[in-house]
Amino acid sequence: MTREQIELGNVTPHNVKLLRHLNNVIFPVSYNESFYKEVLKVGELAKLVYYKDVVVGAVCCRIDTSNGARQLYIMTLGCLYPYRRLGIGTRMIQHVLKLAETDGDFDSIYLHVQVNNNEAITFYKKFGFEITAVRRHYYKRIDPSDAYVLQKLISHKRTANEGHKTKENKKKF
Amino acid sequence: MPSSNPLPPKENALFKRILRCYEQKQYKNGLKFAKQILSNSKFMEHGETLAMKGLTLNCLGRKEEAYEYVRRGLRNDLRSHVCWHVYGLLQRSDKKYDEAIKCYRNALKWEKDNIQILRDLSLLQIQMRDLEGYRDTRYQLLMLRPTQRASWIGYAMSFHLLGDYKSALNILETFLDQQQKGNNYDYEHSELLLYQNMVIYESGDLKQALMHLESCEDQILDKLTLKEILGELNLQLKQFEKAAKYFEELIRRNPENTTYYSKLIQARELTKPEDIVQFYLSLADMYPKANPPKRLPLNYAVEEQFRNLIDNYLRQGLRKGVPPLFVDIRSVYTDKRKVEIIEQLLLQYTDALKKIGKFSENEVNNGPKEPASCLLWVYYFLAQHYDYLQQTEKALMYIDAAIEHTPTLIELFVTKGRIYKHAGDPYEACKWLDEAQSLDTADRYINSKCAKYMLRANRVKQAEEICAKFTREGVSAMENLNEMQCMWFQTECALAYQRLEKYGEALKKCHEVDRHFSEIIEDQFDFHTYCMRKMTLRSYVGLLRLEDVLRGHPFYFKAARCAIEVYLHLFDEPLKDENTEQELNMENLAPSELKKLRNKQRKARRKAEQENAQAAQAQVKREQYHKSKQQGDIEADAPQLDELVPEKLAKVDDPLEQAIKFLQPLQNLAQNRIETHLMAFEIYYRKEKILLMLQSLKRAHRLDAANPKLHTCLVRFCRVLNQNKDGLDPIVKEVIEQEKVLLFNNKDAIQLNRDYLDTYCNSLEAVLEGAKMLYYLNPKLQSTALGLVTNLDNKYQDVNIKVCKNVLRSLKKGDFGQCDSQIEEFMTRCQTLFLHAVDFRSSSSTSVCESNHVPPDQDNYSSN
Ligand SMILES: CC(C)(COP(=O)(O)OP(=O)(O)OC[C@H]1O[C@@H](n2cnc3c(N)ncnc32)[C@H](O)[C@@H]1OP(=O)(O)O)[C@@H](O)C(=O)NCCC(=O)NCCS
């Protein structure tokens, strides 16, 4: 399996419905209109993944500044079942890590997973994420309803004298 | 010959300025100068000035005034070549070419050596294909301008087009001899030599053509064409070794061109399938990246060898994920054995991929797994495979499996729609195409396909809206599509309207398509000068020949057939006057119902008024748009054709004459299609033109004597003859007697029909026509006739949706008299045979289906 077969592409108003199709089959929860409106505006934070020219996965993130820190929150990251364990997840998470790194102004990356989602937990751990909290009844309509918070701290947040560069980069997303 | 009314120097100078302004498109200034002359009372009626004023006005779009001035000018100076020339130009701008030619000829009477007029005349002559006239004019031009290259070429070409190759070649040779010999040959010289070679080739002297080309090889810059012609000439001259060399070289240049391979096979004189397969295999080794040497042997190989080759070919395509793999392979499906082999392989792939991720379970231990998308492409292929074999349920099963596997592959939804289309449900089909379209709204191909499916489901408005995503903004999509000559769309629209019984609308679309063909022929005009100047003579001759057969294009056929069918229908059942119709109905109504009806009518009227208002608004916009366009492009102000108004078109007085207009090009250019002659028969049958009916029948008979539709024509013709036995002109009678032997074997209608039913008793399509005629000839035999077409037992080998639909249509049309209960039974029977076909559902369930246009349920393909 060569890496060239896996490529990232943009989410656009023309193909956003593909993202819906993906999310509908990959995730047990369904996302509302505002989710799909938002992903059209976040640029590099939302990406489709192509495997041999077919869309098979997607990642959507958001910048979260709610609790005093600047965090990159992964809303969804998933891949169609027949295409798992081929490095597609890796490609997506690498994209996210790189974004965080080039931005240089994030404290951490985090996400929620259902507590029984062992595949995802193994997957994220492999990329340095750790379980930092449990959120009871995080999910409303699915069972189990508890979620772990998986988090990865960004090791080398840039120092102040590099600040101007940061601003430039931020504009991109 | 000078004008009969010469101007003094001052006015003459002004006149010259008018001419210059005209050439430089400074029309307003031109009018100013004209005014200066004409306001002088001495020259108020000066012919040439008046004419030029008219011509200038024409360029500003003031057509009526233009004619007025030009004609007045001409009346005042009938012996002025300027006036005649101007009148010709005016007519030409209105596409009245015959009239324009007459004017130019008059102009030349008074000034026979005027180069400009001669040139203009020659253009019209070639446009109108007055080849002899063209030759004479080109001769005069050559005499007047013997040093110009174009004079020689034009003169030579006139002979070429007339088929006088010898004269054409003499002229070309004389011209080339005068050319200075040097070694700075340019592209134009090279093209001229290739043109010369074309003329030699067409004269039939292949040897000479080969010698000619070999002798000037190094002067020809288009090396590709050079090699292609050299290869072809050697091949036709049976100099196989030399030919083979050229085609080997050509394959090396472009190993994707399939014709080179078949030429090389001819050159190597390979005829046995084994040898041909071997040939391709060796080339596949030489060009491992090329497709033809892998694909083409599949047409020749059989059994085990075929299995091995197709196995490899399929695996490669599935691995790569080549979407059109099935379409690429489809042509071998004519061979049943090959279909079996392909099916076996694909089922094997499915199992093995599911179990171990390989194409075969024997390969457990060797090599890496196949890509994860392989199974998807296998499902996709199988869905198309079973669809092709009309096994709808299996096709649906596999396409659903594919969608479950990868719900993001847009092609899957297109295929699902296509399966429903083939299964007879255009509404469901349309729904899936709409889904496909919504997944990538930037894909124009899918967008067009979706529009087409909407039209097949008779949803014209929706189709237009979908197309609007890609048409220009600010104009209605319908209008923009017309402007872009988007003929597939317009023809499908016409067919939808025909099904919806909106005959006027249907005709409008058909006429629009017809006009596109006229426009394309008009557009030729610019090339007469352009090609001559650019020396692209071979393409030019190719263009002229294409234009000559333009309406032979299938697009024209389809639109013309629709128009003819509609006109025939309008002849058989002219549109009734709506008011009298309603009066009649009202007489039989109870008061309460009458009230309801009145209410309904009122609403309908209000709606119609609103629609009219909207239409009027749209019309205003349209006119503004056209105006703005005209101002931008004054030169191209084509004459405004009559607007096509659906209501008027549907209320046609002479439907058969109109139908003939659409028919005539087909009779010239589509004489190999039997439908042409069958349609001709239907028209002349209604016009009661016995000899023309006979002519159509003879032509159809020659193409396919067993054609079912032809049979009904023959039977009806037989009966017409019988009925007119005594009234016929003796000469006509004699002609018919002669032809009867060929057409009917001297049988009478009843015998003819009986024999036909006997001979083709295995074909429902044929029996349908025979049974129709059974009832037609003797209504007492209704139940026999009905029995023949409604008992779908296994004696018929062609019980498919299409034929059954034709049976149903015929039953409903009354071809078998009153038969409501049989219709119902027949529909029920067909419904069990064709589960998805909407035509056999009772009318209540279809209407549900039609309105049931909702996007597909998302739960349908949630997986794992
Ligand atoms: C989690 C997920 C995105 C992983 O995607 P993927 O394309 O299969 O991941 P990769 O192939 O890149 O796997 C990278 C590594 O993660 C680990 N991993 C991934 N899935 C695993 C599994 N099911 N079991 C064990 N390890 C696993 C492995 O170490 C793997 O490396 P390897 O294949 O070389 O052993 C995918 O399983 C998924 O889409 N799940 C459903 C959606 C979801 O739960 N998303 C998380 C919430 S946002």
TrEMBL record, chain A:
Residues in N-acetyltransferase domain copies: 6-155
Highest taxon in the source lineage: Eukaryota
EC id: 2.3.1.258
Name of the molecule in the record: N-terminal methionine N(alpha)-acetyltransferase NatE
Biological process according to GO: mitotic sister chromatid cohesion
EC category: transferase
Keywords: Acyltransferase, Cytoplasm, Transferase
Catalysis: reaction(s): N-terminal L-methionyl-L-lysyl-[protein] + acetyl-CoA = N-terminal N(alpha)-acetyl-L-methionyl-L-lysyl-[protein] + CoA + H(+); N-terminal L-methionyl-L-seryl-[protein] + acetyl-CoA = N-terminal N(alpha)-acetyl-L-methionyl-L-seryl-[protein] + CoA + H(+); N-terminal L-methionyl-L-leucyl-[protein] + acetyl-CoA = N-terminal N(alpha)-acetyl-L-methionyl-L-leucyl-[protein] + CoA + H(+); N-terminal L-methionyl-L-valyl-[protein] + acetyl-CoA = N-terminal N(alpha)-acetyl-L-methionyl-L-valyl-[protein] + CoA + H(+)
Pfam families: Acetyltransf_1
Lineage: Eukaryota, Metazoa, Ecdysozoa, Arthropoda, Hexapoda
Entry-linked Gene3D superfamilies: 3.40.630.30
SUPFAM superfamilies named in the record: Acyl-CoA N-acyltransferases (Nat)
InterPro entries reported for this sequence: Acyl_CoA_acyltransferase, GNAT_dom, N-term/lysine_N-AcTrnsfr
MF GO annotations: protein N-terminal-methionine acetyltransferase activity
Cellular location(s): Cytoplasm
GO cellular component, one term: NatA complex
From TrEMBL, chain B:
Keywords: Repeat, TPR repeat
PROSITE patterns on file: TPR
Renumbered ranges of TPR repeats: 81-114, 224-257
Coiled coil stretches, renumbered: none
Domain of life: Eukaryota
GO cellular component, one term: NatA complex
Pfam hit, one: TPR_8
Biased composition regions of type Basic and acidic residues, renumbered to the chain: 620-632
Record's signal peptide: none
Gene3D superfamilies for this protein: 1.25.40.1010, 1.25.40.1040
Biased composition (Basic residues): 597-606
Membrane-crossing segments per the record: none
Region (Disordered), start-end ranges: 583-633
InterPro entries in the cross-refs: NatA_aux_su, TPR-like_helical_dom_sf, TPR_rpt
Name of the protein in its database record: N-alpha-acetyltransferase 15, NatA auxiliary subunit
